[in-house]
Amino acid sequence: MIEYLLVPLIVAGLVVNGLRLRARVPGRLPASGTASATGEQPATAADWVWITVRGTTLGQATQRDAATYASAEKLSLVDLVPADLPATAARDLVRRVDPRAYRTSVLAVGGSAGAAMLADPALLERAGVIGVPGAELSGMEPADVIALARRLRPYAGQRAAVAVAPGRWSAGDDLAKRRARLRASGNIVGLHLALDVIPYALTVLALVTDWQWGLAAAVAYCLQPYLIFAGTPLAPRGLHAAALLRPVSEPWVWARTIAGRWRSSADQRHETEIAEAAVYYQAALAAGTARFFEERRHSCPWCGSAEVGQRLRSPDLVMHKPGLFTLDQCGGCGHVFQNPRLTPEGLDFYYRDAYDGLGAGTAETVFLTAAEAYRGRARMMQRVTTPKAWLDVGAGHGHFCAIASTLLPDTVFDGLDQGAVIEDAERRGWIATAHRGMFPDLAGELAGRYDVVSMHHYLEHTREPLAELDAAAQVLPSGGYLLIELPDPQWRLGQIFGRYWMVWFQPQHQHLMPIGNLVAALERRGLQPVAIERGPVHQANDAVMAVYLFVTSLVTDRSKPWSPRPATALTRASRALVLAAGLPFIVATLLIDRTLGRALARHWDRGNAYRVLARKQEPADGS
Ligand SMILES: [Zn+2]
After folding, report:
1. Phi, psi of 336, deg, nearest 5
2. pLDDT tens-digit series, residues 559-570
3. Any idea what the Cα angle at residue 580 is, between residues 576 and 585, rounded to 5°?
4. How far is the CA of 339 from the centre of ligand 1 (A)?
5. 315: helix, strand or coil
């Protein structure tokens, strides 16, 4: 009975996913004969840095075509895909990279076939990579080319492309190094493999249940690689074996991947970084964590009320650094705050490697997925004014500014942050000017230079949010706008998750303010709220993040340099097992968040975040 449901579902899944991947197969590199008709100076290979893997040489014709294409399209980075890229690598590529998004979206994930690239020397310089024009970075490993592509991609923005270069020039596939390639692509290897195993296991289940129906599923399973690649510019090497023998070739590929112990130079650099970080962390922790905390306070930092009670206690559920943190709530105004508060040394300890260093990659991945929220913020502003100069406070790498400037092309975006990442944002071209430091310290020199100041998920991380509001009021001229987005501690559905609700985010979130408190504090500073958004700002991730934080807290990752005890084969295996068992719950809660959670937020016009847009009033007469 089950097969009547299962088999159509498997076949439909294979076809839909096959067509999705087929749409991602890159186009063919145009032959240069067509471009020379424009009368422009023909591009030469000497203008570019050529990056190739060991065992690969680019033919002169390919080099000429690629250089001409890059010049004509004003590209600064082109990934060249061998037309005979091996089947497994080809599928990994289309799973990771969407060439159309590559050209149209600044935030599209970077990737590479790991064969060859050409790059503008100026791009390499901005990204801090050494490269001489006309020279070749040759003899690299595919994993290192992929890592380099991911590193360069944010600096290239929309001027990056992926194209299939014809001919048989692939260096072949070394499955023992695939695991390193997947890591370099930013994949979670276990998850990548799990997504391969699911259709396979379902097909086997269908065969066991009813061999005749199951055969239909097996045929669809075998034909899927053809559906992806047949008739496209990519003619993967080994496609027939990968398709027709798929029931045996796939498990073979998985086994070889899992067994792969080879480490790329990116992996080795990463291991060195971890070892160096471990020296700092173990020394810092040897003295205990007590010095990271201030004295407990007995009054509300927002309203001064002495009516303060404990809201919850939580360890660091995100990074799993040692320590236990307390959130108190004010009985007078409802303000939630960390008590005892972290000292500056504590902040340095707990923020280290969260957004830069070892955590840079993960943070980048999170920010890349928030494009829709970034657009929502820009549109809220668009409805009241077209800003001339916009200062984003707590801008980080500048992801918001990169997206907002596509909607507001005439606005100059500057960014402010404490970390070195803000200087990187300027090198990427995502902001015009970087201001590094604390906002209250810089407010004097920034006064009058911006008609918009924004703070997105920033105030809750600061030690003194009211001082930040003072600084905003000081910087803005009369008629200027302040846009603030914050987590909403009053969202009732979030509260059911206790300490696993992402909004509490200990130890990073120092203050969580009910919207009424923020509005009153703005009004006291002459900043009159003109628009408020709640339901549409909801981030549909309450349940999935709670399950994720719960599952990962059952078996913490001991490979971290701050881990008190090192990982062993047993802890690694039990962690993999628990994560695998948790995966179905993570998927299920993700679906609940995206459907029911989102619908309720819309229905109630409330959510786990809110946005307030305020306008600075003219000073009253005589004041
Ligand atoms: Zn209070």
Report:
1. -110, 130
2. 899 998 888 999
3. 140
4. 13
5. strand
